[in-house]
Amino acid sequence: MAHNALDMKVYGGIKLYAGTGSPELAQHVADYLGEPLCGRDIIQFPNENLFVKLHSSVRGQDVYVIQTTSSPVHRNLMELLIMIQTLKLDSAARITAVIPYFAYGRSDKKDQPRVPITARLIADMIQVAGADRYIIIEPHAGQVQGFFSIPGDILTAFYRITEHLVEIKQKMKDPVVVTVDLGFAKKGRNLAANLDAPIAFIEKRRVANDAKAQALTIIGDVNDRDVILVDDEIDTGGSIVQAVNLVKQNGARDVYVICVHPIFSSSASERLAALPVKQFITTDTVPIPPEKASLLGDRLKIISVAPLLGEVILRAHQGRSVGEMFNE
Ligand code: R5P
Q1: Which residue of 239, 246, 260 sits with most ligand 1 atoms within 8 Å of its CB, as the best mutation to test the pocket?
Q2: 277-289: per-residue pLDDT in tens?
């Protein structure tokens, strides 16, 4: 029987797979979509090499691999790459790498001689493995988009965070949004505009390649105001500790800390716990181990990005606009 080409479906159904990087988030995305996470084995051999086996065929299907690339970074990255290759070799029709947190995003340019651009390398590896598309939340810099030659969706978690801030803003006194560094100025400005609040900036200068930072000056007024400090990620906590101290020295009242990616490496959670901060607002792009989360107690508010990822996956599958979700 002859088929009209326009009636033919290009992809089969949605198939969701997850690595071991963020199992809870992956399950929440699956719950949002009402689709199960497909079975697979991920085995690590004694020599640390990984092996993946799918429990069922993905031939002709529209497959989404959810894998964050936070700690253990290299294991999570390799899982992602190997899963993509496995799906490709099993003839998936389309493979989308769903990466809530994109590792190496901070290494995005040669800003000194004889250094790599590792974010570009990771993008290349994802493509070579066989991904057709990608979805990334809040990469450190927008240019990551240009490192891929496949299409993708770069998403912001700030719509979800703003909803929460609008709610708690009622209780704040003269709130001001403060960005932890100038690199975040544009996003900070958008947040301030959405909250109808003024903005201030911290000028921060990195003094070495060893993750130590130094907060220098504050541009703008925080005196006798509640401060909403924003950054894309908290890694060691060094930047945020200095930022909180700086705004406090400049007369800030209550301080709220926002970060999209709670990396919380080494003793970051201990350092954060000691800060005079009213609330830490973050997301689940990176899972926070319970022992770290408990140090922050009920000051920690985690906003899930699962509905965001779920809706974008649904729209990508149906060939509908994603920009529409953000009134674009
Ligand atoms: C850097 O440019 C980022 O925006 C963050 O400020 C940085 O990743 C935070 O790192 P840490 O918590 O180690 O100071």
Answers
A1: 239
A2: 999 999 999 999 9
Burial class from Cβ neighbours inside 10 Å (0-12, 13-18, 19+) for residue 85 reads: middle
Which of 73, 206, 235 is the pocket-test mutation for ligand 1 (most atoms within 8 Å of CB)? 235
pLDDT mean over 26-50: 98
Residue 102 CA to ligand 1 centre (angstroms):
14
Active site residues: 204
pLDDT per residue as tens digits for the range 285-322: 999 999 999 999 999 999 999 999 999 999 999 999 99
Whether domain 158-303 has CATH 3.40.50.2020: the reply is yes
Q: Which fold has domain 2-156+306-326?
A: Rossmann fold (3.40.50)
How far, CA to CA in Å, does 76 sit from each of 68, 174, 205, 233? 7, 42, 30, 18
pTM: 0.94
